[in-house]
């Protein structure tokens, strides 16, 4: 059995030596060059992983399961649509969901915004709208006037005309 001093020296020497951490030898993922930011929210990844783990589920079943895990309903249903639009998830004829790729790739925006300064132009002046010319309505014909009158009004007109013209 070694003496006490040599045992203590061994322990102290092992404490003074720096720890050597093993170098990470894992290969970078196939799509590592596409990842331009560090993901902070895992809703998209969890949604993709759920569909990959449960192939053949519907959108309603997927969102219901993820809401039960604590995710927002609107977020999960929106992400499902985006995953389908980006081709990472596909639907069959019966509207069942399946993972179309082996691993999740962060989604990119479809719309590319132009870079550079925006040019602001003055609003265009509205053209003046001319009012249509007022056209006098055609003078009513006697037959039209009599056709629109009832018997009492026609008799009153007759009496007034008789006073004017005599008779």
Structure description:
With 167 residues, the chain is mostly helical. The chain is 41% helix and 4% strand. It contains six helices and two strands. Strands 1-2 form a two-stranded antiparallel sheet. It is elongated and about 160 Å long. It starts with a helix and ends with a helix. 10% of the residues are buried.
Q: Note the run of SSEs as H and E.
A: HHHHEEHH
Biggest β-sheet: strands ordered side by side in the sheet: 1-2
The quaternary state of the protein chains shown equals single chain
Count of DSSP helices?
6
Helical content band:
40-55%
Annotation, overall tally of beta strands: 2
Broad shape: elongated
Q: Structural class of the helices, strands and pairings?
A: mainly alpha
* Mean pLDDT reading: 77
Q: How do the helices and strands line up, and which of them pair or pack?
A:
Elements: H1 4-16, H2 43-53, H3 59-68, H4 73-85, E1 89-91, E2 97-99, H5 142-148, H6 151-165
Antiparallel strand pairs: 1-2
Helix pairs in contact: 2-4, 3-4
